[in-house]
Design a protein that fits this description.
The complex is a heterodimer.
Chain A lengths: L19 E12 L13 E12 L3 E5 L6 H8 L7 E6 L2 E2 L9 H6 E4 L13 H11 L5 H11 L16 H13 L5 E5 L7 H17 L3 E6 L2 H7 L2 E6 L2 E7 H6 L4 H9 L3 H5 L4 H7 L3
Parallel strand pairs in A: 3-8, 3-9, 6-7, 7-8
Antiparallel strand pairs in A: 1-2, 1-4, 4-5, 9-10
Chain B lengths: L3 H4 L18 H22 L32 H36 L3 H15 L2 H12 L3 H28 L2 H8 L4 H38 L10 H8 L8 H28 L3 H4 L1
Classes of the chains: A alpha/beta, B mainly alpha.
Protein name (chain A): ATP-binding cassette domain-containing protein
GO molecular function, one term (chain A): ATP binding
InterPro entries (chain A): AAA+_ATPase, ABC_transp_ATP-bind, ABC_transporter-like_ATP-bd, ABC_transporter-like_CS, Oligopep_ABC_C
Chain lengths: 293, 292
Amino acid sequence: MAEQPTSAPLAPGPRTGPADAISVRDVTRDYRRPRTSLRHPSPPVHALRGVSFAVPAGQRFGIVGESGCGKSTLLRILAGLDRPTSGSVAIDGRDITGLRERQLRFVRERLQLVFQDPMSSLDPRMRVGDIVAEPLVAQGHGNRRERVAELLEAVGLRADAADRYPHQFSGGQRQRISIARALAPRPKIIVADEPVSALDVSVRAQVLNLIADLVDELNLTLVFVSHDLSVVRHVCDRVAVMHNGQIVETGATEQVYEDPRHSYTRRLISAVPTLGKALSGVSAADLNREYQP
Amino acid sequence: MSAPNTEAAVASAAPEGRRRRRPVPGSLLVGGLIVVAVLGMALLSFVWTPHDPTLVNPAARLETPSSEYWFGTDKFGRDVFSQIMMGSRTTLFVGFVAVGVAALVGVVLGIVAGMAPGWFGELLMRGNDLILAFPALLLTIMFSAVYGAGTLVAMIAIGIASIPHFARLIRGGTLQVMRTEYVIAARAAGRGPFAIALRHVLPNVSGLVIVQASVGFAIAVLAEAALSFLGFGTPPPTPSWGRMLQESQEMLSIAPRLAVFPGIAIAVAVLGFNLLGDGLRDRFDPKMEDRR
């Protein structure tokens, strides 16, 4: 839990600098399962094994990987909602590892989350206006009514949405509410955890474009997590590929897409369904066999 | 930890996209009607009873039911129907106070235990199990022995004995709510644990509280009757269904109806609150949606 100054000798990993909105250095996170034997403690689960990367301010950074690869754990650690077992995370150049909740206030102001599940990410017992205003209340901002109206308009919802409950909205609209809430405290960094995975294909593009537009307009840094390569390609400048709690490949999105180096990345890319492949009768099992490392 | 069927009643991640108007379950309707009837009877007893329920009338002892005395009279010539009306007051009063005590303490305990990290929550729940393992009736008798028999003592003792049921249920609900993304979002927004408990957890476990309260009410009614029957509850001359049963005991061979009427009153009231609880559970449980 020792606080590492950011100028400490660099661990093996990418360059980090003061301009980085997020820098993650050699982060590991182990979980302990409940004991199943009296004699031996359960072996720990390694959710993250030495993850390092840096996101310069203003970049759109994608993280891809299958479910269970540690993406969500990484996000929670980035947001200061969980602690790494070892390693350090800095937001805007300030180390957040081992800080107490009260000291994390600057993270709460600067970094906000958008979640995957539009059903469970909004409190069913709260009005939309209160949901969007929650970060404002928590951080003691004034003029909340006006700000909420402004935000709802920015995400393309009518102002009277504020008086309704989440269940009265569709999945896409709920994701818009979620985005409005995330933008409320004027954060500099948005971390989106599979924000369109639960949506119908028809509204997916709309929500993606909304995120991309807002990120541009407000000059935000975006960390975008998805299992879907095509979605990441649509939004992100750089991408990191995660597998088994490790980053196996990082690079500019196009480069990773056109010229994947790691066998896992190749497998992921070839797994993207295309009409041609489907017509020629390629099955998932074929893909797996073809790219076994 | 807590029973899975009750945990699911949390309104958190109700999977229904849009809340449709569901048909009112029959148990809710019948239970509600019975509860309203008992409530009405208790309220009515404040302004009107056919006879003075405590008036001793030696001229009219052990009357059979008639248009004058609807349920007959007891060995002192008191009107049984009037006594049952008055007794419903005691019953409801006991229920409200007992459930109030249990819900207040139990909900707070449950939420704290559900939100507290690791060992503290566990400690609370183990303490909870300790009370749970103690027979409720024994606890109330113990209380009566120490503080003297009386309605208030009985109510509080019944309330304390019901705390663990609330605490356990609410802890399960709280654990479930704490895992939802809206709570994570609230934490990321900078909300403290107190605000999360009040604004997110409490509203979302309120369905559980209502269900458990109506079931707890039925238990309290039964417990009060049992205590009064044993002589630890409501002291004479205040009418109470439990004590009416006890007094009817010695007349059982001559006038068995004296036991039947209060017995029916207790059974119907308990049934009513249980049905109400069941019906409310059906209403609040999102899983019930699939069964239709």
